[in-house]
Design goal:
The structure is a homodimer.
Chain A lengths: L14 E4 L5 H11 L5 H14 L8 E7 L7 E9 L6 E9 L8 H15 L4 E7 L5 H9 L3 E11 L2 E9 L3
Parallel strand pairs in A: 4-5
Antiparallel strand pairs in A: 1-2, 2-3, 3-4, 5-7, 6-7
Helix pairs in contact in A: 1-2
Chain lengths: ~180, ~180
């Protein structure tokens, strides 16, 4: 069924979505480094969550992996990590989303985010929240969230460092 | 040296501050239940942090315990749990603060919070952040933070449950 809401159309089959697999570990480590968006300490945290995601139980962290639709081997070109905020009865946090630098702008990020929202909605979740940074290098990231229907709900001045704010975005899911 | 800033005077010697000790565990469990402010799941989390605080290393959770100034046995009548937010270079989160119901209104909470701020400032911390709830039963808690110089910096509507917002308060510490 076509989705007619403005701003939420996706390119046809930008990506195939699947679960996290052990073979993704190395691919995602290289992918995270290749984006040149994250500090080493941030990548270390991202990899800890990936390792948790590969462990039975998973500690409440859920994953969606995107592979290029035209890649028969289904190699990861992006992923998202999310989970229910344990203090809330229906707010899910998007902990991480990253797309291979070479695949950026091709709809992979949007496909991942739309998939996460579907999973969350199917689980009875009310909204998805995202925390990100206010610095200039994150401008494309913020524009992406806004284009995907998220709105800024909080801005914590100087949170990460003086002059580097924390921004919080939210999208309410229709039930 | 007297503190002349408005609203920050404390009653003389409301409490003696000290570190967390193993004997506090049972006292604090009863204290948390006695406040009738927390859900069982919240108390379970608070006790997990207390157990971490009693473990060498402590996982980044720091504690201040208040005892009544006139109690020779120094029994805990309140405590605070706080720590550096690992994403920030100088923002400390106040994870928990609770005062024995029978000691509320006697300046113990303010003494605890002032002490936490001193420790944070001495550690080079820039600010203290507190998350709390927007529901009516938390009105005295919110009034307490405002009276202690905190200001609301974010309000996440319906965060905990529909109609139950999450509020974030911050106090910038002068360096």
């Amino acid at each position: 069924m076509p989705n007619s809401s403005p701003g939420s159309s996706t390119p046809p089959k930008a990506a195939v979505l699947r679960g996290l697999e052990p073979r993704d570990r190395e691919t995602l480590a290289l992918l995270l480094q290749g984006t040149e968006m994250f500090y080493a300490a941030e990548i270390a945290v991202a990899m800890e969550l990936i390792d948790l995601g590969l462990t039975p139980g998973g500690g409440g962290y859920e994953f969606a992996v995107a592979a290029a639709a035209n890649d028969p081997e289904g190699r990861a070109v992006g992923y998202a990590c999310f989970g229910l905020n344990p203090m809330s009865d229906g707010v899910f946090d998007l902990y991480w989303i990253a797309v291979d630098r070479r695949a950026q702008g091709s709809g992979v990020g949007r496909a991942l985010l739309t998939h996460v929202e579907s999973v969350v909605a199917g689980r009875g979740g009310r909204s998805v929240m995202i925390e990100t940074g206010g610095k200039a290098s994150y401008a494309p990231t913020r524009a992406f969230y806004l284009a995907c229907g998220y709105r800024e709900v909080a801005r914590l001045l100087d949170f990460f460092r003086v002059g580097d704010d924390k921004l919080m975005y939210e999208k309410r899911l229709s039930s």
